[in-house]
């Protein structure tokens, strides 16, 4: 059933119900199970804050034993010509030789994921793949592979299931889209 919610100044309506998200997360878990079952302890890196709910639901559906850790990309305005800089914080594990699966809530243009991938490559992991809950194929502008995508959407702005509008809406079990 369609529902309208208000966050700050904006109204949102139901776009993807909980059951559909759950199905897509299960399908993604099946792919990871097939691809990682026989590898030495994969390391799952969830990207906070957005991926917390996705990570929580996904790891319950895995039938191999990963390590699980979280990182955060903090954006700040650098001085001079560099403009916006992203710094990866919270990385504690030794990544060298590890098979890493990055869990993201959404890949839009791919800009922030590109920063993250560059930071990870410096640690010489054995492999890095991206598993994203949402992917916006029409907005994506980069050339790295986004191998695991649970759901593809258009260029609309969505909230819920971890994703926020100015920090609200992350707790919703369904996903909503801005109205108008
Ligand atoms: P990108 O760097 O790929 O353009 O954007 C990635 C980040 O922008 C995401 O991690 C997320 O924080 C934010 N973002 C992009 N699209 C959406 C959206 O539709 N809804 C929300 N809530 N955040 C989005
Ligand atoms: Mg994010």
Summary tags:
single chain, 180 residues, alpha/beta, Rossmann fold, 4-stranded antiparallel β-sheet, 10 strands, binds guanosine-5'-monophosphate, binds magnesium ion
Give a verbal description of the structure:
Mean pLDDT is 93; it is low at 78-83. The longest helix has 19 residues, at 18-36. The protein has one domain (19-153): 3-Layer(aba) Sandwich (Rossmann fold), CATH 3.40.50. It has a six-stranded mixed beta sheet. Helix content is 21%, strand content 35%. Helix 1 (18-36) packs across helix 2. The protein has helices spanning 18-36, 52-59, 111-121, and strands spanning 4-7, 10-16, 43-48, 67-77, 84-89, 99-107, 127-135, 148-152, 158-159, 175-178. It has three helices and ten strands. It binds guanosine-5'-monophosphate and magnesium ion. The site of guanosine-5'-monophosphate has 15 residues, from strand 6, helix 3 and strand 9. Magnesium ion is lined by residues 47, 50, 104-105.
């Amino acid at each position: 059933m369609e529902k309208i919610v208000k966050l700050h100044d904006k109204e949102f309506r139901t776009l993807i119900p909980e059951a559909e998200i759950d199905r897509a997360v299960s399908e993604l878990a099946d792919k990871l199970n097939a691809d990682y079952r026989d590898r030495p302890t994969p390391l799952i890196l969830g990207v906070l804050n957005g991926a917390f709910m996705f990570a929580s639901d996904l790891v319950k559906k895995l039938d191999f034993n990963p390590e699980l850790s979280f990182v955060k990309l903090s954006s700040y305005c650098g001085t001079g010509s560099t403009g916006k800089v992203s710094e990866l914080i919270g990385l504690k594990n030794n990544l060298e030789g590890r098979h890493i699966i990055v869990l993201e809530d959404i890949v839009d243009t791919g800009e922030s994921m590109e920063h993250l991938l560059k930071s990870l490559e410096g640690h010489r992991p054995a492999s890095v793949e991206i598993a994203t809950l949402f992917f916006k194929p029409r907005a994506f502008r980069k050339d790295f592979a986004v191998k695991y995508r649970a759901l593809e959407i258009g260029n609309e702005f969505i909230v819920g299931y971890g994703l926020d509008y100015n920090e609200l809406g992350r707790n919703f079990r369904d996903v909503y889209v801005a109205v108008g």
